[in-house]
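#onboarding

Welcome to the new folks! Below is a worked example of what a typical request in this channel looks like: someone posts a single protein sequence, and someone else replies with the predicted structure as tokens. Don't worry about understanding the tokens yet, we'll cover that in week two.

Example request:
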Amino acid sequence: MSHISLSPAELESIITKISSFKQNFETDIKKIKSYSEGLSQSWKDPQYPIFKGEINSFYNVCHNQIETLHRLESNLRSLKKQSEEAIKIAKQFGR
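Example response:
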């Protein structure tokens, strides 16, 4: 069994920072994708489809990272809950 050396408050702080980063990251990549799609109106040369393909690839990679961050956040929430339960049990036994 592993030993948790972070308090629930410290875990919550990390969770909050990851969640905020994830939300900002997701918002920013959506803005980039939307902006790049809007360029199709003014960018009238054969390079635009290549650019759009690159942006779509970039977006997909970023989206996968957002899913990874979501799993990390979920795992940390579970760890925090386990930590809180362990503290509660320890208090019951006078530790």
